[in-house]
Amino acid sequence: MMNLARQLRHASNLNSFLEGVLGMFRPGGPEFALRHVVIKRLPLDHLTFRGGSKNVVLLLDRSLALEKEITLPVAVRNKAYDAIGLKLKTTLPMQGRALRWTHLRVPSEGNFDTYQVLIYKQEFLDAVIEQARQAGIKPRRISVEGAETPLWDSEPKSQGNKRFWAGASFLLITILATGHAIFLGMRMSGLEHELEARQSRIAALQSRIEDAQSRMGERNAHEDIVNDQIRKFNAQSRPLTLLSAMGRDLPEGVWLSELSVLSDSIRLSGFSTADVMSVIRSLQALDWVSDVRLEGPVSEESHTGQKRFDLRLRYLPNGYDR
Q1: How do 307-315 and 289-294 pair as beta strands?
Q2: Which keywords does this Swiss-Prot/TrEMBL entry list (predicted)?
């Protein structure tokens, strides 16, 4: 298994290396330095090509184009040219067969990209190419400054040139690949020892991680037990806390004859020398009480003048926690 993984890794490295070398060569040979010439109008001014070269890129001014703005999802960014083409074919006359376009991506945020699409007539491009050739120029391509794709690109016509560079590329790639394989073979032994040492360290670290996870699980279980005990204690001591609070917070001239602690409220009965509504207001003002209501009528003792009342007092979700 280790040998297979190593072979796959070496194959991947070799593939990346060869791709880098292949990128040095174009099908028709290397592309020498290009000269860029800006075209702003037709007919072409011959002074534009003074001191010119055969390796010329003609850059069309954006003012010569019909501009459209198109929005596409970010997911199709690598296929933006094709996606733009599909959209244009549904909106342009004759599905855009007599037109050529290129695009520039406008910086934007989010899940959509915005593109400036520059559209030119094919007959205009043909005229540019013809006038350039009449001036003794063989344009390599026609584009717009900053555009992601050219409007027109010439291809090398010399088959002998193609064969020469193809043969040279193959020979150079063969030499470099052979040297790379020899270099990998020299390093293989050292890499095997290094891999074994790293695997040993990884196994030791994995063992320590498992021990730490086991101890953490035991500690979490103990904390759960303690927290459960605390919750039970708080639930059992809650009625005592509320009774103590009632004795501390009742207004003067009020005493209770009966008190019941329910899950979310306290039901109490008692007597007051003051008006019962003032008792309700005093209880309602307590910071741990949410609502106070009468349950039944208020009666008055004939021989003492005291008011007898029945109240239900609802407390806040956390109850009395002072």
Answers
A1: antiparallel
A2: Coiled coil, Membrane, Transmembrane, Transmembrane helix
| Nearest residue to 124 (alpha-carbon basis) of 147, 109, 142 | 142
Q: Which DSSP string corresponds to 149-200?
A: S-SEE-----HHHHHHHHHHHHHHHHHHHHHHHHHHHHHHHHHHHHHHHHHH
pTM: 0.40
The DSSP bridge pattern shows strands 152-153 and 289-294 to be unpaired
Q: Are 131 and 42 in contact (CB under 8 A)?
A: yes
* Tokens matching residue 146: 């900053």
- pLDDT over threshold 50, residue 1: no
Torsions phi, psi of 213, nearest 5?
Answer: -65, -35
CA distances from 145 to 32, 67, 139 (A): 19, 14, 15
- The fold for domain 17-164 equals Nucleotidyltransferase; domain 5 (3.30.420)
The structural architecture, per CATH, of the domain 237-315 is 2-Layer Sandwich (3.30)
DSSP 45: P
Torsional sign, CA 221, 225, 227, 228: positive
Which residues belong to CATH 3.30.70.2830 in the chain? 237-315
Mean pLDDT of 42-57: 66
- For 14, residues 6+ apart whose C-beta sits below 8 A from its C-beta are 177, 180, 181, 184
- 110 three-class SS: coil
The widest CA-to-CA distance across the chain, in whole angstroms, is 130
Beta bridge partner(s), residue 178: none
pLDDT at 319: 57
Nearest to 176 by CA among 5, 23, 33, 7: 23
Name the token pair of 221: 């279980």
Q: What is the bridge-based pairing of β-strands 66-73 and 112-121?
A: antiparallel
